[in-house]
Amino acid sequence: MREYQFPPSLQVGDKVTIISPAGKIDKGFLKGAKKVLESWGLEVAISKYAAGESGRFSGSVKQRATDLQLAMDDKQTKVILCSRGGYGAIHLVDQINFDKFRENPKWLLGYSDVTLLHELFQYNGFASIHSLMARHLSVEPKDDPCALKLRNILFGELPSYQSTKHKLNINGTAKGILRGGNLSVLNGLRGTPYDFPAEGTILFIEDIGERPYHIDRMMNNLKLGGVLEKISGLIVGQFTEYEEDLSIGKEVYEMIADMVEPYGYPVCFDFPVGHVVNNVPLICGSETELTVDNKGVKLVCK
User: CA 159, CA 294: separation in Å to the nearest integer?
Assistant: First the structure.
């Protein structure tokens, strides 16, 4: 089981750099995120092209890659917050050099399309945090539990989670490395060097706006590729903004449950991760224990 390096925990006064590696974003969300992070006692810098615009993107590939590389290379930066997802991080994967980053590792934060960067960081041996981004920090209240949990993780507290039971849950206990993110993005990395290793993985998945038969296709890709057989456990998060299509004969959760039931490992449904307000931060690359029983779900990072 591969071990991933954790960047150092934060101290008051440490620097966060906000970048936009994919879609363009309203400047107001950048300012709002900056204000919240400063209230945590952190210094905040907004990268040169974070508020830029080039079609649907925040900048050209060169501009977005430059912002990411500079943040990774900056000795003072301790956290890189991706302002939003959208589409576009795929353009940066083969543009980034980790030589200076290895000397000064830092946390990468984000979700959705940022799943690509999480896989890139894990490929290079570093843990990162699948987490809320700038809009969430801007619009949710100061005592938002997901934001507070993220702050606690950054300042050195290993997280644990509890989730309510679901009728489709499959009971059991598993230990493994927590990996995952957006299912569509993970599917797009299949067959590349950045595809996650299935053995010893507790996999979490979520998605937005995907038709049920698309989800079925992607899950079957994982099945036929041997991934579902090899993982140690499965966390099914939120699948949102789609129209249920019973022409495939099942609801989305039911389709996933039937597909993984033969493997015998623990599976939980409706976990609070995805394109929703209750999107808890998860450390990609952490050693994790997943327990699913009749009382509910417990996930502990160690």
Answer: 22
Q: What is the dihedral of CA 238, 242, 245, 246, to 10 degrees?
A: 30
Per-residue pLDDT band for 2 (boundaries 50, 70, 90) equals: confident
CATH for 15-154?
3.40.50.10740
For the chain, what are the domain ranges? Answer: 15-154, 160-301
> Is the separation of the CB atoms in 132 and 111 below 8 Å?
yes
Q: Confirm or reject CATH 3.40.1000.20 for domain 160-301, answering yes or no.
A: no
Q: Is the pTM of this model over 0.85?
A: yes
Report the side by side order of strands in the sheet with 107-110. 43-46, 15-19, 77-82, 107-110, 128-130, 282-284
**Residue carrying the six token digits 């990468």:** 108
Q: How many CA atoms lie within 13 A of 12 on its CB side?
A: 3
Asked if residues 231 and 288 have their Cβ atoms less than 8 Å apart, the reply is no
Report pLDDT digits (tens) over 30-74: 999 999 999 999 999 999 999 999 999 999 999 999 999 999 999
| Active-site amino acid positions | 112, 206, 275
Token output for 143: 């005592």
